[in-house]
Design a protein that fits this description.
Belongs to the cytochrome P450 family. One of its GO terms (molecular function) is monooxygenase activity. The chain is 49% helix and 11% strand. By secondary structure, it is an alpha+beta fold. Helix 4 (74-81) packs across helix 9 (180-204). The mean pLDDT is 94.
Length: 418
């Protein structure tokens, strides 16, 4: 008698349309209906395995069983990631490239980011009072674009700000889109790589000297395992892998503001309880949608829970569903930062809004620390630095649109300094 079980399987030729229609809930819905944390389906014309939960995350981030090469669909590489970036690497090449990114995330580097970000918020508010009403999402993207460029050593003039903000935003707003929005994302990718690639060449030719230990300086001079400089195109992709995710924090800025509005009792706790800000931003990251899932391919045949995983099978890890898994979180659909007071584990495989695993040896997002710091700066600013009103608007958000943000992008008005 075989000790290998048949994995729960979704019938039908292809379910890519269902994935687009259900968005963040596609995998959680089927985990619930199959009563299983793993199931087989067909997506993008190929067999795929979807899974979620802490044990599935531990498996997914086992580098001996899964690889990233060939996992991201071409349309995602053409917009979000670019070609030959760190997200597509495995083994020693990935470890070496990831170490380059982690070198930028020193305590000093993160503190410098915080100071720049706080300064950009302070400068932005100077014009808000006169304008009467602002759209927070759009303002946050500009603030974060200026922050990202200053922190990365990338020169950015005031007249370039709108263009570069739009280009970098389009990279993360377009991967799940079809038609004109997708083509806008591809064009933005080309424009951004041309812009940053030109700067890399200027640095290497000695025509521009960026500040030491900035992304532009470090990545322009980075050498691969063979001792060769990255080609200018790949170096540009990796510098954009610093800039783009920082601008994307605008999504979390919007949800931070939404949480303060939906749960006003949080303001008092944030003002009076030491350490509560960390709990609050973690709960915002857990509660609200960011990435729906992560993709990898099976590295070699193996068996898990008596299910067979065949080499090269596309595998999706349910990020949103794991963050809302009732086996991991009490009352997961309730906003409760205090839950993190009781969490004794490292959250390495249970809190995974930006991916899981380890920072150095694995594929966990190296920018997670600065994401949380940017959210803290924003929350402090909205609570302690300005007074404002939230007019009547549609603050709902979709779990189908990827990425998701409140439909109004959060308008605030009657803004004054405190």
């Amino acid at each position: 008698m075989s000790d290998v079980n048949q994995m729960p399987r979704e019938e039908g030729l292809d379910h890519s349309v269902s994935l687009m229609r259900e968005g963040y809930l596609y995998i959680p819905n089927r985990r619930r209906s199959f009563q299983s944390d793993v199931f087989e389906t067909h997506l993008l014309g190929q067999k795929a395995i979807c899974m979620g939960g802490k044990e599935a995350a531990e498996l997914f981030y086992d580098n001996s069983k899964f690889k990233r090469s060939g996992a991201a669909p071409k349309r995602v590489r053409q917009t979000l990631f670019g070609e030959k970036g760190v997200q597509t690497l495995d083994g020693k090449a990935h470890f070496h490239r990831k170490a380059m990114f982690m070198s930028l995330m020193s305590e000093e580097g993160i503190q410098r980011f915080v100071e720049i970000n706080r300064n950009e918020w302070e400068k932005a508010v100077e014009s808000w009072a006169a304008r009467g009403e602002i759209v927070l999402y759009e303002e946050a993207k500009k603030i974060l674009c200026k922050t990202a460029c200053r922190w990365a050593g990338v020169p950015l003039s005031d007249k370039e700000l709108d263009k570069r903000t739009d280009e970098l935003s389009s990279l993360f707003e377009s991967p799940a889109s079809i038609g004109p929005e997708h083509w806008k994302g591809r064009n933005s990718r080309n424009q951004a790589e041309k812009w940053i690639g030109g700067l890399v060449e200027q640095v290497r030719e000695g025509k521009f000297l960026p500040e030491s230990q900035t992304a532009l300086q470090v990545i322009s001079g980075h050498k691969d395992l063979e001792g060769k400089l990255l080609d200018p195109e790949t170096a540009a992709v990796e510098i954009i892998n610093i800039l783009r995710p920082i601008v994307a924090i605008a999504i979390y800025i919007n949800f931070t503001a939404l949480a303060l509005h939906q749960f006003p009792e949080q303001k008092e706790k944030l003002s009076s309880e030491d350490g509560y800000m960390q709990l609050f931003v973690q709960e915002v990251r857990r509660y609200y949608p960011f990435f729906p899932f992560a993709a990898a391919r099976v590295k070699k045949d193996f068996t898990w829970r008596n299910y067979t995983f065949e080499k090269n099978t596309l595998t999706l890890l349910d990020l949103y569903g794991t963050n809302h898994d009732s086996k991991l979180w009490d009352n997961p659909d309730v906003f409760n930062p205090d839950r993190f007071k009781e969490k004794s584990d490292t959250l390495k495989y249970s809190l995974i809004p930006q991916g899981g695993g380890g920072y150095y040896e694995g594929h966990r997002c190296p920018g997670e620390w600065i994401t949380m710091e940017a959210m803290k700066v924003c929350a402090d600013f909205l609570i302690h630095r300005i007074a404002y009103e939230v007019p009547e608007q549609d603050l709902s958000y979709s779990l189908v649109s990827m990425p998701s943000i409140p439909k109004s992008e959060i308008k605030i008005e009657r803004i004054t300094r405190k």
